[in-house]
Amino acid sequence: MMVVIVVPTAYIRTMGVEKLAVFLALFVVAHCYPRSFRNRCEVKTFQFVSREEWGARRPFATSNLSHPVPYVVIHHSYLPAACYTREACAGAMRSMQNFHQITQGWVDIGYNFAVGGDGAVYEGRGWNAIGAHAVGFNVKSIGIVLIGDWRAKLPPGNELETVKRLISTGVQLGYIRPDYKLLGHRQVTPTECPGEALYREISTWDRFSLDI
Questions:
Q1: Is residue 74 classed as helix, strand or coil in its secondary structure?
Q2: Which stretches make up the Peptidoglycan recognition protein family domain (predicted)?
Q3: CA-to-CA distance for 36 and 189, rounded, in angstroms?
Q4: Is the pLDDT of residue 139 over 80?
Q5: How far is CA 186 from CA 50, 189, 200, in A?
């Protein structure tokens, strides 16, 4: 929905330019916090690429996720490899969806969100659908995959920062509990994921927990 603000010229003269700027900023903040990621107003700290924008197929089915969730689970894709442009990351998203839906027989791409080396968030199942990324934790977590193989090296700094901002946004919007626990995939499933380098990195982040 587009919000159009019409301010009379006389009102501008009365308020002055600086006061008007503050008014408009407060108006936008007040009107851009619906519980939907499709309103671009609420995406203030990172680029967001919707399913439509990266060329996703429709899910075969969906199951609703109960909010707020107590866990955030971090993954790496391993394959596809790291991507650093919108075009490459969109291709990586389609590749993951093909593998999950066609090869694995899942209803959709498994992750709730993905983050690319371009620093953008790519919509997977989103906030509202149960993912397929961590057995036993799908119904109580948001799964975030960092596109690439992060066993021996870290993702770019902008990719790591975007993950933190995405989690913070989820807390602010009520999808993730403020006292959530941050986990690496390997903590709940026998796997290398999210890669040794990335796992060591997230173990230094706020809310990381060894206590599951």
A1: strand
A2: 46-189
A3: 31
A4: yes
A5: 28, 5, 12
